[in-house]
Amino acid sequence: MATTRKKTTGKSKSPAGGVTADRELCLKMFRTMALQRAVEDRMVTMYRQGEMLGSVYTGHWHEAIAVGTAAAIRQGDFLCPLHRDVGAHLWRGMPPWQIMASFLGKATGPTGGRDGTLHYGRPDLNIYNPCSHVPDNVPVATGGAFAFKYRGEDGLALCYFGDGATGNGGYHEAMNIAAVMSLPCIFICENNQFAYSTPLRLTTHADFYKKAAGYGMPGVKVDGTDAVAVYEATAEAARRARAGEGPTLIECVTMRMHGHAEHDPASYVPREMLAEWAKRDPVELFAARLQKLGHATEAEIAAIRENVRQEALAARKKALGDPMPVATNIEEGVYAD
Amino acid sequence: MATTRKKTTGKSKSPAGGVTADRELCLKMFRTMALQRAVEDRMVTMYRQGEMLGSVYTGHWHEAIAVGTAAAIRQGDFLCPLHRDVGAHLWRGMPPWQIMASFLGKATGPTGGRDGTLHYGRPDLNIYNPCSHVPDNVPVATGGAFAFKYRGEDGLALCYFGDGATGNGGYHEAMNIAAVMSLPCIFICENNQFAYSTPLRLTTHADFYKKAAGYGMPGVKVDGTDAVAVYEATAEAARRARAGEGPTLIECVTMRMHGHAEHDPASYVPREMLAEWAKRDPVELFAARLQKLGHATEAEIAAIRENVRQEALAARKKALGDPMPVATNIEEGVYAD
Amino acid sequence: MPTNKEQVAEEVTYLDAISQALAAEMERDESVFLMGEDVGQFGGAFKISKGFMERFGARRVVDTPIAENGFTGMAAGAAICGLRPVVEFQFADFISQAFDPIINVMARHHYRTGVPVPVTLRCPFGGRLRAGPTHSQSIESYFAHVPGLKIVAPATVEDAAGLLISSIRDNNPVLFLESKYLYRRLKVPAPLSLEPTPLGVAKVAREGTDVTLVSYSVGVQQGLEAAEVLAREGISVEVIDCRTLVPLDIDTIVKSVKKTSRAVVLHEAARRLGYGAEIASEIGEACFWFLDAPVTRIAALNTPIPTSPPLEDAVLPQTEEVIETLRKVARS
Amino acid sequence: MPTNKEQVAEEVTYLDAISQALAAEMERDESVFLMGEDVGQFGGAFKISKGFMERFGARRVVDTPIAENGFTGMAAGAAICGLRPVVEFQFADFISQAFDPIINVMARHHYRTGVPVPVTLRCPFGGRLRAGPTHSQSIESYFAHVPGLKIVAPATVEDAAGLLISSIRDNNPVLFLESKYLYRRLKVPAPLSLEPTPLGVAKVAREGTDVTLVSYSVGVQQGLEAAEVLAREGISVEVIDCRTLVPLDIDTIVKSVKKTSRAVVLHEAARRLGYGAEIASEIGEACFWFLDAPVTRIAALNTPIPTSPPLEDAVLPQTEEVIETLRKVARS
Ligand SMILES: Cc1ncc(C[n+]2csc(CCOP(=O)(O)OP(=O)(O)O)c2C)c(N)n1
Ligand SMILES: Cc1ncc(C[n+]2csc(CCOP(=O)(O)OP(=O)(O)O)c2C)c(N)n1
Ligand SMILES: [Mg+2]
Ligand SMILES: [Mg+2]
């Protein structure tokens, strides 16, 4: 099967010598991570200023996961993100202002204001728009993976879900189906230590990556603050998927550094835990790595930071200026023609 | 917690020297297994004669599982059976004629004909009456286990489900909850190689007992045709449960020797597979064991067999003679007072 | 299954019609495939896909684990990615486990994104087979409130084929309600036309002047029987077969009621918020000035559906009750 | 949460009422406990159980994994074994994942076995908070068709407490619909009576003579506002608050409609097979000879509920529309 598969669009990303050998790739990844941070910091400010429709969910300390995974697959692959994965949207080409527009309910948001806040996607970028229910994006991803296999194409689906979502039946059914049908699907568990207020001990009594064994699929655990580690694990899972070897579960360990969303002060999170994790900022870690690798000077890093900060500022300006939707044809589109 | 728990009714069943040291217990187990076989054989005949309302589900080769588990727990424990577990009902005290009455839609069936065929239970015997949907009895069992723990009692819940049912989200959510809450619950997976027509390779890519690790609970695998092995595994799981050590998954491996139900000729089952398993009849195996242990002579075994055959015949007679329900007060009982 | 052998069979059942229509669509469109429990080698619990495995292979006749939630979400994903899944629920009752992906993923996706989700959800539904509370349910009311789903319920052999074809070709999630009771009871002479019957168009199954009976699925057959009996008494019943519940062809219904001035709505589902409530409300609002009698609903009692024959018969509407109600309304 | 501090607070909100009633029932009956996501230390997404952990401990304030299906089935099992679980869904929308155990385990169990299943399912529901298609749903129509469930939807602070108390004491599974919109918008002077309000008894929220408005939850508040405006125009609106949807107190509704001869039914749920269809059908059948105008439904459009304010406002019924419709019906 694998040998007869049609190629999907987008170039394969498995640089010889690993991702660190590819300066251009590394810099693009870094820029996207820094952009996620800048955009989300800006959105937090917007929330505090009362500009947003509802609460704001951030992916602080998830940047290496969002970007490391998205960078390791192809544009034609089916990406099924959740609320921590702004970096994956950005990598695919979603403009920051449009994410903000979603949180503002603007006509220019990806759904034109029909859905909003964290529920957005871009069909043209092969980004699924998830609904609120976690982890309903996971069975959907297996369906996308099924479609690639059905058509004999070498595309894959990649989905994200939190530690909390693993307690849910949809996750289980999809993992099992993907294993049994040997679907080209990559399951990214973003273990950020909390599900809303719920700590891991009330979520599971087993490590997440070990759950893969119960489905007969490989499960790996990576440092979710290390973009390179995430990239490499994803690239290997993608290789397996495209070769017809079936799904992989990757547990990416990180920390949710803000509340569940900005309305949540997260007083249930031990302060020492935050202090400990504060030392492992994935954006900082990657910046340091790039300098050590000689891919960028401190000045170049600083320039990128300033550049994304400006982009986030401009995004806010555009998003705020964009029009609200008008309630004409409000009943159109409930059904497709 | 465990030490302060109130005792539930029913005597504990952990004979010193193991189950085989207890002749009375062994003989009662054997008789119940033989009775299950006799009753189900009779029901198959009744089906063929067109006496039944619908199809008939048998637990051939499941007798050691149904009886071995039920015998190893207490009458006061919450038992949540499915369609292969007639022996567990019998062990608890359900009369054979009443099971037949369920399949006949009689007024004397456990639900008075409101539900019927394989959906029966007896609240007074602490037997849950499951609905069709598999494995909806599994979350219910965790709820029963929760109730015991909540009240500080040392009771437990035990539920059964097939290999096929493990692909279902309800199973997963309940297993995880039971592990996280450390509930006194025993999960019995009856791996009989098929889920309706679906073979194991389309159900799972991992051994069932290994799935327990994904929940952080012990998983054990036993020969489901060996009543002693099933008993001992259950007794140990019960000990853990009562001691507050949490749930256990027990995979009991056996074979479904009939079709999914009697309407199903099961032509999808390889004949060699049936021939191989035919050699491992749990009732025969236990009969031989009893003789080897000196607990019963061949004649005594034969007498039991004849006795249960007569009981099954008498059960049919009573069930057939019982009245059909009358449709008065048909709207009563939709709501409890 | 439309093997050559059966193409020359003398009769086609409601079940054959579904099987033939499904096979024809799979022949016609490579993106159509069937998935569900035991649909492969086994041919499905009701044998709709008997022979499909040999004909289309395991790629297009997909046996799933017992995971209604997961495989329905998967069908949504496959549809979003361009395929046209046909999902078989072994019994309609099991769709309860897939309620979430149907209402939250499938039904709302096009509205939110503009991406169609063409999935056909095949549900063998209804009672009268002594199958009890969790194998006999009428499921239309669980879903009819949800914007974005279509609901189709054929009452005849021809419509079983024609409406299934349209459902599969439709670009929306469609709940296709197959009457288990009619599967082998309804027959027409072979061969069967495999032309699509448009969704959203009701049918006047029998013309009449005194009272309009609005129904769907097995109720239409009951209504036709009742009309036949009443015709002998000089009462002329017009029977409307909704065929599609969502969208509902209210115009055809209203036209009939304006003519007869009397309306009875019949279904096998429980009365409270059965789909009859929607139909009756619409008639009441649109035909108020034309009505000579209250719009009357005939439905199952508000109880679970019991297993035992005397109980099930007492709970579900019987033809005798349909006759009596129509007579009473016609003469009021 | 009814700590001593708040007992002496000057005002009690709809949210406080629920919190106080729940705490009172937990005090009163050891078998009552609360379970759901983040209900423990965190006090729940809407802070209904703030302080409960300190007061009742982790044994009775149970944080669950994100497993609506599993923990709902678990609640059923706990109830069957003698406890009285109160289940909090973080948003009513998530109950879609628990549809199966609610309709197939909870709702049918007593009918099949005679064993009661006393579970209260607390559902923060409804729109107007810009929360979009999967955080704003009205869920009553998903369940109202199912025999064996009760459905309660308080419209006032007093009823939020009184009906919750009755729901918890009821021996059946009860869907308790809490209006997120009213949570902090409705207030009454403290202290609040914590007496049970019986289920199945509607209330004449405002007496009138020209037209009857039947509603529940937030619609009652809209109706009262509209009635006030119309009173100034000389139109007298009688507002009926159903309070309980299942069982429905149809007698109170019928009595009012027989008096006014005109009926409008209002809810925030989508129109098609909204619960208004059941109410309108019942009125149409019971009051046919008394009606001077068609029974008219006001409801949301048949679309998902959009997020953006201009869109959500266009989809959900606004008070202006209620006023206009009542005026039109009253004058017709
Ligand atoms: C079925 C369902 N129940 C509840 C929620 C509410 N909810 C949204 S996110 C969340 C916590 C998710 O935790 P986790 O999966 O760990 O993801 P994280 O937010 O930590 O990234 C909850 C409970 C939901 N979205 N879906
Ligand atoms: C949710 C659900 N889907 C489908 C069915 C139909 N069904 C009944 S039993 C069965 C097979 C069960 O297989 P398994 O769990 O292995 O149990 P076994 O019958 O082999 O003991 C199926 C598909 C069901 N009861 N519930
Ligand atoms: Mg998390
Ligand atoms: Mg099996």
In terms of DSSP E residues, the strand content of chain A is 5-15%
* CATH homologous superfamily descriptor of the largest domain in chain C: Thiamin diphosphate (ThDP)-binding fold, Pyr/PP domains
**Number of helices, counting only DSSP H or I runs of 4 residues or more of chain C:** 12
Helix content of chain A: 40-55%
- How many structural domains can be distinguished in the coordinates of chain C? 2
Number of strands of chain A: 7
What composes the largest sheet of chain C?
A: 7 strands, mixed
What do these coordinates show?
The complex is a heterotetramer, with two copies of chain A (337 residues) and two copies of chain C (332 residues). In chain A, 41% of the residues lie in helices and 9% in strands. Chain A has 337 residues and is an alpha/beta fold. In chain A, the strands form two sheets. A five-stranded parallel β-sheet of chain A has the order 1-2-3-7-6, with helices on both faces. Chain A has a two-stranded antiparallel sheet with strand order 4-5. In chain A, helix 1 runs antiparallel to helix 9 (282-293), helix 2 packs parallel to helix 7 (227-242) and helix 5 packs parallel to helix 6 (169-180). The longest helix of chain A is centred in the N-terminal third of the chain and has 26 residues, at 23-48. In chain C, the strands form three sheets. A seven-stranded mixed β-sheet of chain C has the order 3-2-4-5-7-6-12, sandwiched between helices. A five-stranded mixed β-sheet of chain C has the order 9-11-10-13-14, sandwiched between helices. In chain C, strands 1-8 form a two-stranded antiparallel ribbon. Chain C contains twelve helices and 14 strands. Chain C folds into two domains: 4-189, 3-Layer(aba) Sandwich (Rossmann fold), CATH 3.40.50.970; 203-330, 3-Layer(aba) Sandwich (Rossmann fold), CATH 3.40.50. Chain C has 332 residues and is α/β, with parallel strands linked by helices. The N and C termini of chain C lie far apart (48 Å). Chain C is globular, with a radius of gyration of 20 Å. The longest helix of chain C has 15 residues, at 14-28. In chain C, helix 2 (14-28) packs parallel to helix 7 (157-169). The chains are: A alpha/beta (337), C alpha/beta (332). Chains C and D meet through helix 5 and helix 10 of C and helix 5 and helix 10 of D. The structure holds thiamine diphosphate (TPP) (2 copies) and magnesium ion (MG) (2 copies). Residues 162-164, 192, 194-195, 256 of chain B line the site of one magnesium ion.
